[in-house]
Give the backbone structure.
Amino acid sequence: MTTIKFKKFNIEAYQPGKSTIKSFNKIIKLSANESALGVSTKAKKAISNKKLSLFRYPDGKSKKLRSQISKKFSCDKEKIICGAGSDEVIQMLCQLFLKPKDEVILPQFSFLMYRIYAKIVGAKVVFAKEKNFKVSVSEIIKKVSNKTKIVFIANPNNPTGTYLNSFELIDLRKRLRKNILLVVDDAYAEYMQNRDYKSGLDLFKNKQNVFILRTFSKIYGLSSLRIGWGYGSKKIIDALNVIKPPFNVNEVAQKAAIESLKDKKFISRSVKHNNFYATKLKNFLSNYDISSNKVSANFLLLNFNKCKLRANSFYEKLKKKGIILRST
């Protein structure tokens, strides 16, 4: 029997957070940083519209959605590209910028898809140490070489929940060579209320060598529809549009995203809900010497160094109660 040869990748596949527990019909899932309040009622109404023409191909350029994003965030719609989740945009960036033996710098702890897509195109992934689970600008700079092409950073970071303040993020861009692309993932930006924080979009909207990632999977609650977007220079966007699949974002996702952007009350309620319960949970756990990061995104990284209970035991005890966490 002949098997056609194919490429083999020395890559550990992405493992999503668990969604089920045997013997539990209803679980509390905290393993994927999903929206606690679900989806905007405006989005639900839009996708339940009987007039949706599901037999038609969607708008391949997501024109109406890009216009709504432009209006919401005061940015140029011609510098926006939409993807089937922001991870598709990450994939396209790696295809566009990287070739074998190029280098990509990531924080020690980071979203797995950065390294996976970089490795698929043959690039070398270089990890920069973090300090107290926080991205370190100086450690990133130490790792820069003449082969460095991209630096990926999520701010606030997943899975640590820590963040670089505005000064630190601007400092990182200044200290990198101009021909290195800084990719700032704003996945959790909407949750941020800290005064020293500004999103990548706010800070670098007009920078040619910074690319911003955004998602509808977190505060907007559209995870299952797979939709996100990227913002960068017109030249980068034009080049990405050449390699972008022709109908990558489906019509249902586009309509839901448009209505989600309009629903200011839902966003406000989601932020308040997150701040209240994250703070309450953080304070409760501190009574048992379980420490965690400053409330920023919609998740907490729990530290058991000073707690008598071990992290694995804590995980298993909650699992028996039908509560799913994520180990990291």
The chain has a mean pLDDT of 95. The longest strand covers residues 148-154. Residues 28-33+264-324 form one domain.
